[in-house]
Amino acid sequence: MLETRNLTIRFGGHVAVDRVSCAFVPGSLTAIVGPNGAGKTTYFNLISGQLPASEGQVLLDGEDLSALSAPLRTRKGLGRAFQLTQLFPHLPVLENVRLAVQARQGLGLKMLSVWVNHKALIEESMALLERVRLSSKAQALAASLPHGDQRKLEVAVLMALQPKVYLFDEPTAGMSVDEVPVVLDLIRDLKREGRHTILLVEHKMDVVRELADRVIVLHQGALVADGAPAEVMALPVVQEAYLGVAATGAEEVVA
Ligand SMILES: Nc1ncnc2c1ncn2[C@@H]1O[C@H](COP(=O)(O)OP(=O)(O)OP(=O)(O)O)[C@@H](O)[C@H]1O
Questions:
Q1: How confident is the model at residue 204 (pLDDT cuts 50, 70, 90)?
Q2: CA 225 to chain centre
Q3: Cβ(255) – ligand 1 distance below 6 Å
Q4: Are 203 and 37 within 8 A, CB to CB?
Q5: Closest ligand 1 atom to the C-alpha of 12?
Q6: Which run of H or of E encompasses 209?
Q7: Using a 6 Å cutoff on CB, does residue 13 contact ligand 1?
Q8: Residue of the nearest CA to atom 28 in ligand 1?
Q9: Theoretical Cys-Cys bridge with 6: which of 56, 199, 210, 234, CB 3.0 to 4.6 Å?
Q10: Domain 1-77+163-255 class, CATH top level
């Protein structure tokens, strides 16, 4: 289980994430919504270790990860998607995934012969590329891929690490209409597997409604609502103030 306790960060006098306490169980998909600047991405950055908390803790399965760097938190099972920096742009697509598989296997590799090991790594990497529908582009350089494909590659790299927790920050942003379903299918598949904890920052309410078991709302850094999607999204306070839409049932969040 992932848990944040009183998680807080201040930038000068501005409190971007304000004492957020929340627990997320394996097998669940929680959407984090709220207007621009509400603190959603910053909350992710605090969980993954990209930013140091001013106060509070991040715990995974009871272990306090607060003092660990981002790479160490990744090793513990916190997987953050959609940071393009995690790709190696000048390496082929397949190599990007293979390096992630290899990083996960770590020292265990020494037990295998170089050849068996290499073959197994390539097979696993190709299987992951098939899952994200990029196997035909295995030899292309990551930098040459269109934006949507780079995002799919990031998902493959993340899956290669086999994290316990997936943090998806606007996974379909900037994607073309035909690319969106591929990424949503992947997230749906991960959810179906039932053992991951998935957190999703998403502005599209139809996606939230379909994928999420639970919605939490951040406003000015604080957690202001938490519950089942229909329940939370129906709250007038969420509709009007926090999501920036009229309380008449607009479908898309303007955030
Ligand atoms: N490194 C930083 N230094 C100073 N202020 C920051 C920093 N990172 C975030 N902020 C501020 O913290 C607040 C929360 O930003 P954040 O990006 O987390 O919001 P968000 O809910 O993800 O917004 P959006 O929906 O637009 O992505 C904003 O006021 C932002 O300007």
A1: confident
A2: 21
A3: yes
A4: no
A5: 4
A6: helix 205-211
A7: no
A8: 37
A9: 56
A10: alpha beta
Cα-based distances in Å from 165 to 3, 11, 44, 171: 11, 27, 11, 15
166: three-class secondary structure by DSSP: strand
**Which residue has its alpha carbon closest to ligand 1 atom 8?**
42
Is the distance from CB of 242 to CB of 38 less than 8 angstroms? yes
pLDDT of residue 177: 83
Domain with CATH 3.40.50.300 in the chain: 1-77+163-255
ipTM field: 0.95
- Decide which of 204 and 165 is more confident: 165
What is the C-alpha to C-alpha distance for residues 189 and 43, in angstroms, rounded to an integer?
25
- Of 89-98, 100-109, 165-174, the poorest mean pLDDT is in 100-109
Please name the helix (run of DSSP H) or strand (run of DSSP E) that holds residue 206, with its range, or none. Answer: helix 205-211
**Nearest protein CA to atom 30 of ligand 1, as residue:** 37
Say yes or no to pLDDT of 252 above 50: no
